[in-house]
Amino acid sequence: MENNKKAMYKLTYGLFVCTVKDGDKLNGCITNTAVQLASDPNLISISLNKANLTHDILKKTKFCNISVLSQDADFETFKHFGFQSGRDVNKFGEDYDKENYYLAENGIPVVTKGVNACFYLEVKQMIDLGSHTLFICQPSFMTVLSEAKSCSYEYYQENVKPKPVKVGETPKGETIWKCTICGYEYVGEEMPDDFICPICKHPKDDFEKIVR
Protein backbone atom coordinates (compact mmCIF):
# COMPACT_ATOMS: atom_id res chain seq x y z
CA MET A 1 0.00 0.00 0.00
CA GLU A 2 1.49 3.35 -1.05
CA ASN A 3 1.82 6.43 1.12
CA ASN A 4 -0.62 8.81 -0.57
CA LYS A 5 -0.53 12.34 0.85
CA LYS A 6 -3.77 13.18 -0.93
CA ALA A 7 -5.45 11.38 1.97
CA MET A 8 -5.14 14.78 3.70
CA TYR A 9 -7.85 16.04 1.32
CA LYS A 10 -10.30 13.56 2.84
CA LEU A 11 -10.19 15.33 6.21
CA THR A 12 -13.21 17.57 6.68
CA TYR A 13 -12.58 21.32 6.69
CA GLY A 14 -14.67 24.46 6.65
CA LEU A 15 -13.41 27.66 5.04
CA PHE A 16 -13.17 31.02 6.79
CA VAL A 17 -11.86 34.57 6.46
CA CYS A 18 -9.68 35.49 9.44
CA THR A 19 -9.51 39.28 9.78
CA VAL A 20 -7.20 41.43 11.91
CA LYS A 21 -6.33 45.07 12.63
CA ASP A 22 -3.04 46.76 13.52
CA GLY A 23 -3.46 50.50 13.88
CA ASP A 24 -4.98 51.68 10.60
CA LYS A 25 -4.01 48.47 8.79
CA LEU A 26 -6.88 46.07 8.12
CA ASN A 27 -6.11 42.64 6.71
CA GLY A 28 -7.49 39.14 6.31
CA CYS A 29 -6.73 35.74 4.85
CA ILE A 30 -8.49 32.50 3.96
CA THR A 31 -8.02 29.68 6.44
CA ASN A 32 -9.50 26.20 6.84
CA THR A 33 -8.39 25.65 10.42
CA ALA A 34 -11.00 27.22 12.72
CA VAL A 35 -12.09 24.48 15.14
CA GLN A 36 -13.97 24.42 18.44
CA LEU A 37 -11.69 22.87 21.06
CA ALA A 38 -13.85 23.03 24.21
CA SER A 39 -17.26 24.22 25.35
CA ASP A 40 -16.54 25.29 28.94
CA PRO A 41 -14.79 27.60 28.49
CA ASN A 42 -15.72 27.97 24.84
CA LEU A 43 -12.40 27.83 22.94
CA ILE A 44 -11.71 28.04 19.20
CA SER A 45 -8.34 27.34 17.59
CA ILE A 46 -6.94 28.86 14.41
CA SER A 47 -3.70 27.75 12.76
CA LEU A 48 -2.03 30.34 10.50
CA ASN A 49 1.03 30.06 8.29
CA LYS A 50 3.91 32.21 9.56
CA ALA A 51 4.39 33.59 6.04
CA ASN A 52 1.04 35.39 6.20
CA LEU A 53 0.73 39.02 7.29
CA THR A 54 -2.47 38.08 9.13
CA HIS A 55 -0.38 35.74 11.28
CA ASP A 56 2.03 38.51 12.24
CA ILE A 57 -0.73 40.97 13.10
CA LEU A 58 -2.68 38.43 15.17
CA LYS A 59 0.46 37.43 17.05
CA LYS A 60 1.06 41.11 17.87
CA THR A 61 -2.48 42.27 18.68
CA LYS A 62 -4.08 39.04 20.05
CA PHE A 63 -7.48 39.86 18.51
CA CYS A 64 -9.19 38.67 15.32
CA ASN A 65 -12.59 37.96 13.80
CA ILE A 66 -13.65 34.86 11.90
CA SER A 67 -16.22 34.96 9.10
CA VAL A 68 -17.59 31.51 8.18
CA LEU A 69 -17.83 31.21 4.41
CA SER A 70 -21.03 29.69 3.05
CA GLN A 71 -21.88 27.98 -0.22
CA ASP A 72 -22.99 31.42 -1.45
CA ALA A 73 -19.36 32.62 -1.46
CA ASP A 74 -18.00 33.23 -4.96
CA PHE A 75 -14.53 32.57 -6.28
CA GLU A 76 -13.70 36.30 -6.19
CA THR A 77 -13.86 36.19 -2.38
CA PHE A 78 -11.32 33.36 -2.29
CA LYS A 79 -9.10 35.18 -4.80
CA HIS A 80 -9.28 38.46 -2.90
CA PHE A 81 -8.37 37.06 0.51
CA GLY A 82 -6.41 33.96 -0.47
CA PHE A 83 -4.44 34.61 -3.66
CA GLN A 84 -2.70 37.88 -2.75
CA SER A 85 -0.74 39.15 0.21
CA GLY A 86 -1.69 42.03 2.45
CA ARG A 87 1.98 43.00 2.29
CA ASP A 88 1.41 43.97 -1.36
CA VAL A 89 -2.21 45.16 -1.47
CA ASN A 90 -4.79 46.77 0.80
CA LYS A 91 -7.46 44.05 1.01
CA PHE A 92 -9.94 46.50 2.51
CA GLY A 93 -9.05 49.34 0.16
CA GLU A 94 -11.09 51.09 -2.51
CA ASP A 95 -11.26 48.01 -4.74
CA TYR A 96 -13.17 46.04 -2.08
CA ASP A 97 -16.83 47.04 -1.79
CA LYS A 98 -17.68 48.39 1.66
CA GLU A 99 -21.05 46.63 1.41
CA ASN A 100 -19.17 43.30 1.71
CA TYR A 101 -18.12 43.88 5.33
CA TYR A 102 -18.59 45.94 8.48
CA LEU A 103 -16.27 47.03 11.28
CA ALA A 104 -17.09 45.24 14.52
CA GLU A 105 -16.99 46.77 17.98
CA ASN A 106 -13.37 45.63 18.27
CA GLY A 107 -12.50 47.64 15.14
CA ILE A 108 -11.79 44.52 13.09
CA PRO A 109 -13.65 43.82 9.82
CA VAL A 110 -16.30 41.12 9.56
CA VAL A 111 -16.85 39.89 6.01
CA THR A 112 -20.58 39.49 5.31
CA LYS A 113 -20.75 38.58 1.61
CA GLY A 114 -21.09 34.81 1.23
CA VAL A 115 -20.86 34.33 5.00
CA ASN A 116 -23.27 32.58 7.39
CA ALA A 117 -21.76 33.32 10.84
CA CYS A 118 -19.06 35.33 12.57
CA PHE A 119 -17.00 35.25 15.76
CA TYR A 120 -15.03 37.96 17.58
CA LEU A 121 -11.99 36.25 19.15
CA GLU A 122 -9.30 37.01 21.70
CA VAL A 123 -6.10 34.94 21.74
CA LYS A 124 -5.52 33.17 25.05
CA GLN A 125 -2.60 30.95 24.10
CA MET A 126 -0.14 30.50 21.21
CA ILE A 127 1.67 27.29 20.27
CA ASP A 128 4.56 27.19 17.79
CA LEU A 129 3.95 24.41 15.24
CA GLY A 130 6.93 25.04 12.96
CA SER A 131 5.48 26.39 9.70
CA HIS A 132 2.33 27.57 11.53
CA THR A 133 1.28 29.06 14.85
CA LEU A 134 -1.74 27.65 16.64
CA PHE A 135 -3.82 30.41 18.24
CA ILE A 136 -6.22 29.25 20.95
CA CYS A 137 -8.95 31.87 21.25
CA GLN A 138 -12.04 32.67 23.27
CA PRO A 139 -15.04 34.29 21.55
CA SER A 140 -16.45 37.49 23.04
CA PHE A 141 -19.32 37.54 20.55
CA MET A 142 -20.80 35.28 17.88
CA THR A 143 -23.86 35.40 15.66
CA VAL A 144 -25.56 33.77 12.67
CA LEU A 145 -25.70 35.93 9.52
CA SER A 146 -27.54 33.59 7.14
CA GLU A 147 -28.99 30.09 6.93
CA ALA A 148 -26.88 29.12 3.89
CA LYS A 149 -24.85 25.94 4.29
CA SER A 150 -21.19 26.32 5.26
CA CYS A 151 -18.65 25.97 2.45
CA SER A 152 -16.51 22.90 3.04
CA TYR A 153 -13.09 22.49 1.49
CA GLU A 154 -14.51 19.69 -0.67
CA TYR A 155 -17.38 21.93 -1.85
CA TYR A 156 -14.87 24.63 -2.78
CA GLN A 157 -12.78 22.16 -4.79
CA GLU A 158 -15.77 20.70 -6.62
CA ASN A 159 -18.06 23.70 -7.10
CA VAL A 160 -16.25 27.00 -6.62
CA LYS A 161 -12.67 26.71 -7.84
CA PRO A 162 -12.41 27.00 -11.67
CA LYS A 163 -11.31 23.84 -13.45
CA PRO A 164 -7.84 23.80 -15.08
CA VAL A 165 -7.90 24.74 -18.75
CA LYS A 166 -4.23 25.19 -19.65
CA VAL A 167 -1.97 22.59 -21.24
CA GLY A 168 1.09 21.18 -19.53
CA GLU A 169 3.69 22.97 -21.64
CA THR A 170 4.41 26.57 -22.63
CA PRO A 171 4.97 27.58 -26.28
CA LYS A 172 8.69 27.08 -25.58
CA GLY A 173 8.06 23.48 -24.59
CA GLU A 174 8.57 24.08 -20.85
CA THR A 175 6.64 22.00 -18.33
CA ILE A 176 3.94 23.69 -16.23
CA TRP A 177 3.06 22.56 -12.70
CA LYS A 178 -0.19 24.01 -11.37
CA CYS A 179 -1.10 24.45 -7.70
CA THR A 180 -4.31 22.51 -7.10
CA ILE A 181 -5.20 24.89 -4.27
CA CYS A 182 -4.95 28.34 -5.84
CA GLY A 183 -3.95 27.84 -9.48
CA TYR A 184 -0.43 29.31 -9.30
CA GLU A 185 1.79 27.94 -12.07
CA TYR A 186 5.41 26.88 -11.73
CA VAL A 187 7.39 26.54 -14.96
CA GLY A 188 10.15 23.92 -15.03
CA GLU A 189 10.78 20.27 -15.77
CA GLU A 190 11.04 19.39 -12.08
CA MET A 191 9.99 21.24 -8.93
CA PRO A 192 12.32 21.59 -5.93
CA ASP A 193 11.24 19.29 -3.09
CA ASP A 194 11.05 22.22 -0.69
CA PHE A 195 9.04 24.46 -3.04
CA ILE A 196 6.25 26.44 -1.33
CA CYS A 197 3.51 28.13 -3.35
CA PRO A 198 4.11 31.90 -3.06
CA ILE A 199 0.35 32.55 -3.11
CA CYS A 200 -1.36 29.98 -0.87
CA LYS A 201 1.75 28.60 0.91
CA HIS A 202 1.05 24.95 0.03
CA PRO A 203 3.94 22.55 -0.68
CA LYS A 204 5.09 20.68 -3.78
CA ASP A 205 2.68 17.81 -3.04
CA ASP A 206 -0.23 20.09 -3.96
CA PHE A 207 1.05 20.74 -7.49
CA GLU A 208 0.19 18.67 -10.55
CA LYS A 209 1.26 18.67 -14.18
CA ILE A 210 -1.53 20.04 -16.30
CA VAL A 211 -2.21 18.01 -19.45
CA ARG A 212 -4.69 18.41 -22.28
From TrEMBL:
InterPro entries: Flavin_Rdtase-like_dom, NADH-dep_flavin_reductase, Rubredoxin-like_dom, RUBY_RBDX, Split_barrel_FMN-bd. Gene3D superfamilies: 2.20.28.10, Electron Transport, Fmn-binding Protein, Chain A (2.30.110.10). Its cofactor is Fe(3+). CDD domains: rubredoxin_like. GO terms for molecular function: FMN binding; iron ion binding; riboflavin reductase (NADPH) activity. It holds the Pfam family RUBY_RBDX. Keywords: Oxidoreductase. Residues 174-210 form the Rubredoxin-like domain. This is NADH-FMN oxidoreductase RutF, flavin reductase (DIM6/NTAB) family. It comes from Lachnospira pectinoschiza.
